[in-house]
């Protein structure tokens, strides 16, 4: 498949089969990620590949956050939402967290975020080429101080910018884009 075909066919995937994700596949995706363009070669990205114990720990943070948004913690509804959320998070075949090393210079910080976003896109494209789907999530679990504590990360030094949920796609949705001429202006 050409790079353009890969780019055009890639989709965010929200449902995965239970097939395991091989470590060598993750390594290939990470290898692609670190070749993203980055101004002044700052290499601001950091990655955490979760094992089953850490995924279980974060599942409870994820579930607690989700349930607190939807129900009073002292209710059966809260417990039901919590249990479903734990199951949902634990069912994700593999999770890779992406962090950005924070720079005190606001311009460099913005450049570094762009670089990390490019790294995530490279990761997703490499995964797609391997037959894996990825969902880039920016949900509350990556902003929760309990997550930083569990990962032993100083939130003043590194910002988590994405949780990459990945696995073999159970289904792939359709997508379209506006034609180039609708979003481009050519100037002399």
Automatic annotation (TrEMBL):
GO terms for molecular function: oxidoreductase activity. Its cofactor is FMN. SUPFAM superfamilies: FMN-dependent nitroreductase-like (SSF55469). Keywords: Flavoprotein, FMN, NAD, NADP, Oxidoreductase. Residues 7-168 form the Nitroreductase domain. InterPro entries: NAD(P)H_nitroreductase (IPR052530), Nitroreductase (IPR029479), Nitroreductase-like (IPR000415), YdjA-like (IPR026021). Belongs to the nitroreductase family. This is Nitroreductase. It comes from Hydrogenovibrio thermophilus.
């Amino acid at each position: 498949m050409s790079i353009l075909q890969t780019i055009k066919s890639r989709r965010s995937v929200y449902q995965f089969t239970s097939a395991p994700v091989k470590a060598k596949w993750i390594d290939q995706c990470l290898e692609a990620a670190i070749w993203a363009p980055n101004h002044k070669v700052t290499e601001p990205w950091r990655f955490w590949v979760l094992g089953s114990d850490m995924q279980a720990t974060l599942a409870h943070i994820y579930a607690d956050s989700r349930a607190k948004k939807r129900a009073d913690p002292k209710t059966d509804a809260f417990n039901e939402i919590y249990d479903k959320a734990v199951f949902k998070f634990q069912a994700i075949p593999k999770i890779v967290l992406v962090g950005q090393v924070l720079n005190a210079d606001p311009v460099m910080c913005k450049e570094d975020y762009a670089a990390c976003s490019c790294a995530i896109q490279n990761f997703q494209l490499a995964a797609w080429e391997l037959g894996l789907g990825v969902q880039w999530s920016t949900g509350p679990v990556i902003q929760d101080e309990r997550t930083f504590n569990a990962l032993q990360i100083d939130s003043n030094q590194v910002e988590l910018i994405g949780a990459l949920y990945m696995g073999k796609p159970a289904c792939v949705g359709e997508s379209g884009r506006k034609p180039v001429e609708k979003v481009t202006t050519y100037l002399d």
